[in-house]
Design a protein that fits this description.
CATH topology: Methylamine Dehydrogenase, Chain H
CATH class: Mainly Beta
Shape: globular
Number of domains: 1
Number of helices: 1
Largest sheet: 5 strands, mixed
Oligomer: single chain
Strand content: over 45%
CATH superfamily: YVTN repeat-like/Quinoprotein amine dehydrogenase
Radius of gyration: 19 Å
Distance between the termini: 24 Å
């Protein structure tokens, strides 16, 4: 990584030593995010170290942020309680575009790599498609879910869109025509996240029923089901080579709260667990490897910390606490040294990874 810019030397960092009918069944949601519990009071200025030591840019949103992803090396896309889908230049600290089309909070955003396409899901049960180069109106709508849409993934060839909802439905859409080509309802499958396996026809999804399912997008059948975890599975990510899956767990007081590495080549094979968070682990992501080849996993939690782990040994290499930020609900790796994080209380955070002898993570900007 090299040594970080001396201008950032005062920034705080920490190292760690170590239109379908719903079929809901009787399962009641235990994974309900309550934005109002974590927002700072209007006009209140946080009095803590990181608030005074980071660069403060123009805020991307008014209110809590639920999701962030990267559109290009310079641009990120986010969505939150203000119902907006925002494109932001995180390097320059300025807003580029704010799309208004949803009438309830935005739950997920995804982009198709190498394009200007943006897809957004919402509690209004809708999925909208936007193009950064085609004005401020959605260019396509995907309608049919009966409850909040939490899962959103684009196929590697950019032709299909997968959506998953708390209504138990998993749907596969043709992106261009917005036609729903396949749909399937599984009782108690309250979808929390969806991701496409790179270079594959497989889709992975997590659920409030504590299960992880692998779907074949050609037949729209479940091909593998992983052993049920003890707690709700909140998020998942697949490694760039398609060999590994990481999932994260709900929990409290250090019970649950883990992330788990699975080998997709051996269905149901648990490799390691990453334990250390004290509240729900809301997001888990694979990061680019270190120069020495060390594979990394990042997690963010409702305990207001980000942790970086050695993927294979499950050793925690670094921890960054963001006191007062509330739940840290979404991560977006940009490259091997830059990571974005969405929070309930203090917007988006730019995190920088570096260090000469050991891995260090620093908060350098907020917007």
């Amino acid at each position: 990584f090299g040594v970080l810019c001396s201008k950032l030397s005062g920034v705080v960092f920490s190292k760690c030593k170590c239109c379908f009918p719903a079929n809901m069944g009787k399962l009641q949601s235990k994974f309900r995010k309550r934005s109002d519990l974590y927002r700072a009071s209007q006009g209140e200025k946080a009095d803590n170290a990181f608030d005074s030591q980071v660069v403060q840019y123009e805020p991307a949103h008014q209110g809590s942020i639920n999701t962030v992803t990267n559109l290009s090396p310079d641009l990120c896309v986010s969505g939150g309680s203000d119902q907006a889908v925002v494109v932001y230049d995180w390097k320059q600290g300025r807003m580029c575009q704010s799309f208004q089309g949803h009438n309830r909070e935005v739950t997920k955003v995804v982009c198709y790599p190498g394009s200007t396409w943006i897809f957004s899901a919402s509690r209004d049960k809708m999925v909208l498609m936007w193009d950064l180069n085609q004005g401020d109106e959605p260019i396509q709508e995907y309608c049919g879910h009966e409850l909040v849409v939490n899962g959103l993934a684009v196929s590697p060839d950019g032709r299909k869109l997968c959506t998953g909802s708390r209504d138990n439905w998993m749907c596969l859409w043709d992106i261009e025509s917005a036609k729903c080509e396949h749909r399937r309802n599984i009782s108690r499958n309250l979808v929390t996240h969806v991701c496409w396996v790179p270079g594959s026809s497989s889709v992975v999804q997590t659920s409030e029923d504590k299960m992880i399912r692998v779907w074949d997008s050609r037949s729209w059948q479940v091909t593998n089901t992983f052993p049920a975890k003890q707690y709700i599975q909140t998020h998942c990510d697949v490694s760039s080579n398609g060999n590994y899956l990481v999932s994260s767990s709900n929990g409290f007081g250090g019970q649950g709260c883990e992330a788990t590495l699975w080998d997709l080549r051996q269905p149901g094979c648990k490799v390691v667990e990453y334990r250390g968070h004290q509240q729900t682990t809301a997001c888990c992501m694979f990061l680019p490897s270190l120069p020495d080849g060390t594979a990394l996993v990042a997690t963010s939690s409702h305990d207001s910390t980000i942790r970086i782990w050695d993927q294979n040994t499950a050793v925690c290499l670094a921890t960054l606490p963001l006191e007062g930020a509330g739940p840290l609900v979404s991560l977006s790796p940009i490259d091997c040294t830059n990571l974005l994080c969405a929070s309930f209380s203090y917007g988006l955070h730019h995190i920088q990874l570096g260090g000469a002898d050991s891995l260090e993570i620093k908060l350098v900007a907020r917007f």
